[in-house]
Design a protein that fits this description.
This protein has about 200 residues and is an alpha/beta fold. It has ten helices and five strands; from the N terminus they run E-H-E-H-E-H-E-H-E-H-H-H-H-H-H. It has two domains: about 5-120, Rossmann fold (3-Layer(aba) Sandwich); about 130-200, Arc Repressor Mutant, subunit A. Pfam families: GerE (PF00196), Response_reg (PF00072).
Length: about 200
């Protein structure tokens, strides 16, 4: 059976590297492991198209630095960033820097595998579609003023509590508005919402 595609795992934690090697290998990906972003960057120019899965917190060159360097070289490789719980602001910054997606640890195996499969289905030379941007704008137009405020808070990396405090309403009410925002924007999770906001120009690259 042929491999589904190449995956390049970057993590300084040997236990996590071994775990991902086993998981992704069993899912029939061709996995290459790196214990430092510097090693990956040294090998980058000779690598075939594939998905990069990188931890965000690493010594020397961290996940954010890695994204900046890949963006500067116009690398076609999609990058999935792994973050710890509570690193939403970092995840937002990662999406602004061009990350394909982010996943919070601990994550469900199938969620990560699904992200990688989606990333590998992308063309290395993606082009932006005006039709898609117009569709996103039409979804944003359906949001109420309060829902738009909540959406702006979410894509800025604010927690429900901080958004509630900023607008002087209860966190429970924010949860209701948040659910409405996700439904109207047709976003299944926060990373999708951030990508939509970037495409609509709400977040600056």
């Amino acid at each position: 059976m042929s491999h589904k595609g190449n995956v390049y795992v970057i993590d300084d934690d040997p236990t996590m590297r071994d775990s991902l090697d086993f998981l992704l290998g069993a899912a029939n990906f061709n996995v290459t492991l790196f214990d430092a972003a510097a090693d990956f960057l040294d090998a980058h120019s000779g690598l075939r198209f594939g998905c990069v899965v990188s931890d965000v917190r690493m010594p020397d060159i961290n996940g954010m630095d890695l994204l900046r360097r890949l963006k500067a070289t116009a690398s076609p490789l999609p990058v999935i960033i792994m973050t710890g719980h509570g690193d939403i602001s970092l995840a937002v910054e990662a999406m602004k820097l061009g990350a394909f997606d982010f996943v919070e640890k601990p994550f469900e195996d199938e969620r990560l595998i699904g992200m990688i499969e989606a990333a590998l289905q992308q063309s290395p030379n993606r082009t932006k579609s005006d039709d898609v941007s117009a569709e996103i704008a039409s979804r944003i137009a359906t949001l109420s003023q309060r829902e738009r405020q909540v959406m702006d808070g979410l894509v800025a990396g604010l927690s429900n509590k901080l958004i509630a405090r900023e607008h002087n309403i209860s966190p429970r009410t924010i949860e209701v508005y948040r659910a409405n925002v996700m439904t109207k924007m047709q976003a299944h999770n926060l990373s999708e919402l951030i990508r939509l906001a970037l495409r609509a120009g709400i977040l600056n690259d």
